[in-house]
């Protein structure tokens, strides 16, 4: 049984309507109302536990009443709940909807990753250099390490989410962060490549043209497209379901940071064909991740909306999902 705990401060003139909505919903349990108990903001303290599958409709009620604008709403996950009433409500009323994503929570996760602080660019620069070392030494382990260090997926999913919600500010900020971050990663790899070349430390295999890692990166093809599409789908689904271990697999599946590193290294060694191929690989992966992420968000919302509608048709007296 999955539940969340809601702590809200409600303006007194809204409290009766809010409490009425919560009390009438079978997915709400442990409803507590403390009139005039809240400060900063001032108002009535309202707390309840809520089955996660009903969270989207209940939180929509908070927004419709304006509690989020005039008061405040805080959501916490419940680690363990022992309630026969809640268990029965989950089984009888929600069904498959019990596992629906809480879209406000999903948006909160996306917004949390969409702050492009100096560390965002630092991580991309460091990842670019690690990737450059992996390319020069033909080390696939270092390439994987660079993928894990790179934080670019947060910007990618922020852009996809902005397109889904038609919110253009996060789209502009995310694209700007991606362009600036990958430019910095390329420059860091380029500077490192010049340093290695200038000091005569180029690995012999790389000088002889034995560059299997680089060739894999700078040769975009059907298979790299397939991986990017699948990674885009899995990444968004993992994000909406809070499967963070799965997202690690997404980070090490797409050729973004390695492509940026290869652009820099190829530029340092005047390997312009390889640089063009890596640039195409980078653009292909970024565009595919954004488009597929946008479509996956749309499809997920559509599917869960249909699940809620079927539930409502099965039980006409229940609130809308």
Topology:
Elements: E1 3-10, H1 12-24, E2 28-38, E3 43-51, H2 55-65, H3 67-70, E4 72-78, H4 84-94, H5 103-113, H6 118-137, H7 140-149, H8 152-165, H9 168-198, H10 204-207, H11 212-217, H12 222-240, H13 244-251, H14 257-268, H15 272-314
Antiparallel strand pairs: 1-3, 1-4, 2-3
Helix pairs in contact: 1-2, 5-8, 6-7, 6-9, 6-14, 8-9, 8-15, 9-14, 12-13, 12-15, 14-15
Topology as a string of helices (H) and strands (E)? EHEEHHEHHHHHHHHHHHH
Helix content: 55-70%
Gross morphology: elongated
Cα separation of the termini = 18 Å
Give unreliable regions as ranges.
none
Q: Count the E strands.
A: 4
**Strand arrangement across the biggest beta sheet:** 2-3-1-4
> Number of helical segments?
15
Structural class call reads alpha+beta
The radius of gyration is 25 Å
Characterize the main sheet.
Answer: 4 strands, antiparallel
Quaternary status = single chain
Beta percentage is 5-15%
In round numbers, the mean pLDDT is 90
Summarize the structure.
With 321 residues, the chain is α+β, with helices and mostly antiparallel strands. It has 15 helices and four strands. The chain has helices at 12-24, 55-65, 67-70, 84-94, 103-113, 118-137, 140-149, 152-165, 168-198, 204-207, 212-217, 222-240, 244-251, 257-268, 272-314; strands spanning 3-10, 28-38, 43-51, 72-78.
């Amino acid at each position: 049984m999955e539940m969340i705990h809601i702590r809200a401060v409600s303006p007194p003139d809204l409290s009766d309507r809010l409490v009425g909505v919560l009390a009438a919903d079978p997915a709400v349990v442990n409803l507590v109302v403390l009139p005039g108990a809240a400060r900063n903001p001032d108002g009535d303290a309202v707390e309840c536990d809520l089955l996660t599958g009903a969270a989207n409709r209940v939180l929509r009620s908070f927004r419709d009443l304006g509690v989020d604008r005039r008061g405040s709403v805080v959501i916490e996950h419940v680690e363990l709940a022992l309630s026969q009433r809640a268990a029965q409500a989950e089984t009888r009323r929600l069904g498959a909807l019990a596992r629906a994503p809480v879209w406000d929570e999903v948006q909160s996760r996306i917004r949390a990753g969409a702050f492009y602080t100096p560390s965002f660019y630092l991580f991309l620069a460091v990842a670019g250099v690690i990737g450059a070392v992996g390319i020069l030494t033909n080390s696939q382990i270092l390439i994987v390490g660079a993928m894990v260090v790179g934080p670019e997926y947060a910007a990618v999913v922020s852009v996809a989410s902005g397109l889904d919600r038609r919110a253009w500010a996060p789209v502009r900020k995310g694209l700007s962060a991606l362009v600036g971050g990958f430019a910095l990663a390329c420059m860091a790899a380029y500077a490192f490549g010049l340093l290695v070349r200038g000091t005569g430390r180029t690995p012999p295999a790389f000088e002889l043209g034995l560059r299997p890692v680089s060739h894999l990166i700078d040769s975009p093809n059907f298979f790299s497209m397939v991986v990017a599409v699948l990674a885009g789908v899995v990444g968004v689904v993992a994000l909406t379901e809070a499967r963070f271990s799965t997202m690690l697999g997404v980070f090490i599946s797409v050729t973004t940071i390695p492509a940026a590193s290869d652009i820099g290294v190829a530029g340092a060694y005047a390997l312009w064909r390889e640089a063009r191929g890596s640039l195409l690989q980078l653009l292909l992966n970024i565009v595919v991740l954004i488009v597929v992420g946008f479509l996956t968000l749309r499809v997920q919302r559509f599917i869960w909306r249909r699940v809620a509608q079927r539930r409502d048709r099965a039980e006409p007296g229940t609130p809308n999902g």
